[in-house]
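Annex B. Sample input.
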Amino acid sequence: WNKLSTSYSYARYLKDANKVAPSDPLEYSKREKLFVASLKEVMQHNAKPNQLYKKGINKFSDWTRDEFRAMNGGKSTKMVQAK
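Annex B, continued. Sample output.
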């Protein structure tokens, strides 16, 4: 997370995450846009002072929330607060 910048590209992410680039141009564009949105969100979070944690990029950073949820058994990834 500490070396992320706006110049971190989708192509570099694919290499770092050891992922194969989608061969379909439309799929590549979709995944690239998802990655760029994830990178922006991570950088905005990490730029805020006094955060309790830092975010980073991982192998799921070019997935949709629905794809991640399906992989997670459809369960919410947010912690449930005890009542």
